[in-house]
Amino acid sequence: xxxxxxxxxxKGADDIFSTEESRQEQKxxxxxxxxxxxxxxxxxxxxxxxxxxSMQRTVESVEQYGVLSPLIARPRPEGGYEIISGHRRxxxxxxxxxxxxxxIVRQMDDDAAVLLMVDSNLQRENILPSERAFAYKMKLEAxxxxxxxxDLTCGQFGHKLIGAKARDIVADESGDNARNVQRFIRLTxxxxxxxxxxxxxxxxxxxxxxxxxxxxxxxxDFLEAMNDxxxxxxxxxxxxxxxxxxxxxxxxxxAFAVMGEEKNWTRLSSKTTPCGNTFLxxxxxxxxxxxxxxxxxxxxxxxxxxxNADLYRNxxxxxxxxxxxQKEKRL
Length: 331
What we know:
The protein is of the alpha/beta class. The chain has helices spanning 13-27, 53-65, 87-96, 110-121, 129-148, 154-157, 163-174, 178-186, 192-199, 205-211, 216-229, 235-246, 252-259; strands at 31-35, 39-40, 71-75, 81-85, 100-105, 311-315, 321-325. The longest helix is centred in the middle third of the chain and has 20 residues, at 129-148. The chain starts with 12 loop residues before the first helix and ends in a 6-residue tail after the last strand.
């Protein structure tokens, strides 16, 4: 009986290797030269690109050597590419007059893009508090979103990325602690003017965290009171303002009274000040404020700008005046 013949077609070695090579080529990321006008910043990018001394050095390097490290970007639905990593390099290239940049293009979803964008920028040496605050917040939300997706199982992450666990991951990967991560994220609740003051070191980090619990209207009243008194808040002052707001007793007048308190001034001797205590005589919004104290004599401002009360005035070298009621002389 004739044997059944099998029609088997075997591929040659060249075909096998060329197929494997083409597969690897498809997987391998390609560096493309993309016109600089087709590159757009990441949406809500929290890191500032400043024209400072460091940027000038980067521009000089780009002018001499070009952009040595490629940017990472992803295609935009509306056209062009969204930069994930390389915003400073792109700006330096613009200043240097380059027409195109080396870019690695990746297909990434929003959460994966946020994680890569944050991680690539947190490696920088100098990061402003506002930058770290929004970066932590964006990364935390991205991790929570990934953990909530039904197609990402516990086996893929080892745990569900929700709540405190996600904060622990943010802290661990940034070299911080979970409590500090949460405190930085609190700064994102500050109005822009106050947050800028934190970046400029006009308001310290710890008081700023406490002030973030005030609502927007209260923060603006506080900002006005801070400007009127020309004083930066201490931690204890910020904590008291937070408590007053939580108890429903916050107002501009309250903020002004708290911010008008003197810090780091010792009690004057009784030879200089009869009652031995000092109080700041301030005029917010052209109105006189009086504090409830045995040493404070209430009174209204007259046309000469002084109170009607019998007050002892002591001038500090910086021009701030303190008032104290005179003690009656004994015969």
